[in-house]
Amino acid sequence: MSKVDLKKIRVTGFKRHYRILMQELHQSGIIQLSENNALSQQSVGKGFDEHYGAFDTARTEFALNFLRPYESKTSKLDNLLSGGKVVLTSAEMKERLKGFSGEAEEVISSCEALSASLLKAKNELAGLPRVLGLVTNLRGLRSGVQSDFNTATTTTWIGKIPLLEKAALMRALASESNLFDLSLLGETKLEAYIRVTTFNDMAGGVQSQLHDAGFEAIDLATELEGFVGQTPREIKTVLKKQEKSLNAEIDAAQAEAKALAVHVRDLKILAEHQAWQQTKNEAQSMMFLSEKTFSFEGWIIASALDDFKGWVKNAFVGEVVVECVKLEGGEVSPSLLSNNFVVKSFEPVTEMYGMPQRGEFDPTVWLAPFFLIFFGLCLSDVGYGGILVLAAAFFLIFGKLSAAANSSLRLLLYCGLAAIAGGVVLGGYFGLTADQFSVMVNPETGKFYGQLLTPTEGAGPIAFLVLSLAIGAVHLLFGMILAFAQQIKNKDYSGAFLDTAMWVFMLISIALYSLGEMIGLDKSLTANLCIAAAVGLVLTQGRSQKNWFLKPLFGVLGLYNITAYLSDLLSYSRIMALGLATGVIAFAMNLTAEIFSGMMPHPALGVLVALVVLLFGHSLNFGLSLMGAFIHSGRLQFIEFFGKFYDGGTDKFKPFQRRAKYLTIES
Amino acid sequence: METAVLMAVIGAGLSISLAGAGSSIGIGAAGVKGAGIFGENPNLFGKVLLMMLLPGSQGIYGLLIAILILNSMGALSGNIEITGVESMKYLGAGAIMGLTGISSAIFQGRVAAAGIAMLPRAEELSGKFIMQAVVVETYAIFGLLIAVLLVLL
Description:
The complex is a heterodimer of chains A (667) and B (153). Chain A is α+β, with helices and mostly antiparallel strands and 667 residues long.
């Protein structure tokens, strides 16, 4: 229900204790190392190589990523329930690390080799079709490929021209002389592959004709390197054979990879272990190191400090010292929230906006009930809420997910329950009307059991709107009371009494003036209250001005703030709008299904069509309403509620601890 | 009677078509930005999709008002009964929803696109980018509110 107290400490000791100390800190996650440049830049002693282990980690991760596609598919459900992570105890982890240590190097290096040969084979295979195409197009080259087609007296060109130019080229060449040979080697739809031979002394003329025809020479010596002396037909046979063997090679490599994929689990364990080691080594960059000692600073959870001090004293017999460090001016402690089991689930909402600053309290516990009420009224459907509850409960009971994921699931569970409550109040059952779903209808009232208002009929819309605004008014006033409490706590008495309390007085007076007659309050009395509040505000709101002439002016201008409160209040009308949207669109989906199924020629087909429309329509409505309910319930906290008393924006406490990318360690 | 029906139907049409157009433009603008972003970093797909969908709600509000109009005039049950005054209210409601919807969806799409563009550099700020875009939606919600009151009262 509050922020966790964090203390800054400096730990100094002999290097020989470094590993054990870091092991303990890494495992418990109670400290956030903080960089102190003044300290770390004076380092004179050499630590372990900072990048020690980075290479090993990278290799293991490489092997892991390489093998993943070949892993035999575990069942999708298993994967969902564990979040794709390996779940094991730390004893099992130790055992597997030991068991795998002998094989690891072999597995990883065979992965590297396999990956390289696969890549090479795939590249070669990808290059084959081009050469095959070329050879096919040169099929008329009966003499075979030569390294040089020229002789002492003749010049030969081999290449391609656009098919349309072929006839023109023939004519042009023939008009010049008949001492040339042009043979067609092959044709595609657009190009003709030709060989042209002539005597050396005529080469210039022929070449310019070829150029005009758009001739593109093909350098056979490089394009078909290694095939000199072979005819296109022979080359083709060789290439086909090559293709076959490359495919076989790839198949074999993939089969081998599939066999190696049984090690994925072990590789995950190893990768995680290596990453932990690496983090511990990297921590040194934040430290002061001398020949024999180390020293670092960090933020520690205050309640864990005494235990940690005691442990250090026992474990290192005074050779490691923990001391508290005074904060320098302007230094801000990171924040960590700590709430009870239920409220904890709402911490992500606060964290999304920003962590509390110094002097601010953790607003999570205050926003939680309002968040649920808003969410419940926005989603407002028993069916949709039930789906949320069932889904969340399923994963909570059968899943083996991390603590953070479970906490989010509980939030989903609470929200689902709130939506069920909202659905009961507003009569939302998958958008069904009372006569469509008469089982749940109270025959006396013609409404669903427990239904308080029907938002689409009679006075229902106004009642829903008033309800939304009333909850909003409570929310806003509550925010101002929190602001008051916070100002008192921070000894800002003038802010508390002259601003916050004065405005609360003003707003309550206005509310009484407009609604007081209903509870028998005299209008003239409430009007006087309003006037008193307004006078109070005029007298106080200009107090920061030095100029006595400006004070009353700014006081009057301060009254203008009333519009800000009004727009805050109106903003809560979104609850009604979103609540109505869920129900009406669900109703429209049911109606569409009914109309469509009625148009079908056969009743069975009608049922099928209705099911498809219902499934699609309700999934869409469920998804969009869920998103809207979350986002707008959050917005009402962030902008309307937090605007009164909460700024937030310090860094979150990021403990030095084990990452959990591949593993979930069970205790 | 025919004129009244025509006006009510135009109201429903304005509501869904203008608000829907706004949502399409908004989602389109955000989506174009989004494709470039998650193409480079596929891990961002979820966040990009969420932000991309934000301007979609105006289309839903437009649909809501259109359905309410059709329902109130009896078009859904098959026996249409409508007076001249009612048809004016429906036309007004549809126009209000359509206009507030189209403007806020387009500009919400722009804010969402700007947020999406920043995601690779500041992924941890995604919640704040979403909130920034949600502020724009307020005016569509006010439009929705007035339109609902017009149709149902």
